[in-house]
Amino acid sequence: xxxxxxxxxxxxxxxxxxxxxxxxxxxxxxxxxxxxxxxxxxxxxxxxxxxxxxxxxxxxxxxxxxxxxxxxxxxxxxxxxxxxxxxxxxxxxxxxxxxxxxxxxxxxxxxxxxxxxxxxxxxxxxxxxxxxxxxxxxxxxxxxxxxxxxxxxxxxxxxxxxxxxxxxxxxxxxxxxxxxxxxxxxxxxxxxxxxxxxxxxxxxxxxxxxxxxxxxxxxxxxxxxxxxxxxxxxxxxxxxxxxxxxxxxxxxxxxxxxxxxxxxxxxxxxxxxxxxxxxxxxxxxxxxxxxxxxxxxxxxxxxxxxxxxxxxxxxxxxxxxxxxxxxxxxxxxxxxxxxxxxxxxxxxxxxxxxxxxxxxxxxxxxxxxxxxxxxxxxxxxxxxxxxxxxxxxxxxxxxxxxxxxxxxxxxxxxxxxxxxxxxxxxxxxxxxxxxxxxxxxxxxxxxxxxxxxxxxxxxxxxxxxxxxxxxxxxxxx
Length: 477
Known about the structure:
Elements: H1 3-6, E1 11-14, E2 22-25, H2 33-54, H3 56-66, H4 71-94, H5 96-99, H6 101-119, H7 129-160, H8 165-194, H9 197-217, H10 230-234, H11 237-268, H12 272-278, H13 280-299, H14 304-320, H15 334-352, H16 355-365, H17 372-404, H18 406-413, H19 415-437, H20 451-476
Antiparallel strand pairs: 1-2
């Protein structure tokens, strides 16, 4: 822990309670100057990144179709960003300490700004394979820059606000939501008024202008590398389930990128400039609900599991009615579509905000050393799994949209959060089962539960024994 941080908070360790080591911090209720700078810097990167990401939705799929790319190829173009983001996040998270959080953060923003401008020049490329290939190349480089900035920002936030990470991340999602809200209408307006190039040039230049400001605002964190690895983190059963939750959320959100604007244009006959306004329902509800859910997650840690479960169920239900699915025999209406987007935004906040602090808490329970190195691992894992879902979502969504239509594609996509909820519920039921059976004989137990439940139960036994060994060694020290 750096000397500048030690001046603002002194950790005091207490004996573990319920197999969990706890660390209490004496923090001033008022934010320090350093914390204010961190909030400003990360708010800027959230806003700029999301506004650049979301401007593609209203008009790029149609422009790409003019250049010879079908809906499946457009899905791959959206999805390749997430695939390279996934790979880059794993590398960035592992080597965050060696590279430096501040340097990684600022460099990522610089790269993203440059390639956003370059993306605006792709309309000059020849139609067909050359245009498609350049789209893939530019999006891949943009993904690497985004991975650097977002992984570093998560780590910096967790370092500066160790006891309130969900609240802080939830509050910063306001700026993520603003970027998602303003990106489509601004992009649609600039596209209608000035053509394809201007939206990317304007917003890419905005990102570049923020680079020197963040160089000044962000503090520099020093830390020593840890021996802990990604593999040690991802084999924890609880972390596996939480990663499935992250994956389902990002897949559902990414599904909308290549499909929603085309569906709205064809189904409701809206002009491109108004398509961006449809995105408002999702982005506003997400950005407004996230701070409250993050605050609840920090103050009531036991509520995190229920937030994740009910959020997943609501997300699945909304995707079934987004089309709606043909099995319901309900005609698609614009008001119903917007209502489902509003509820999806709220449910994504319920499902997503508790996950990061829950993974961090689980890592502490399993003996990981506290510090910037662990924060890099957790940030990299969170971002990587989110990116993997963001690759599968638009890629699979574009394919299903081509083959089955938007209504069936959305319903199938709703199966991801439903599967996640089923896995978590199965884990909890199996947990209760093995707790009860620990006081009874295990005879005929395999006849009472499915093979899947027993497999999860074995995972649970492994995790529980590992936590108890760590708690015992912790109490001896």
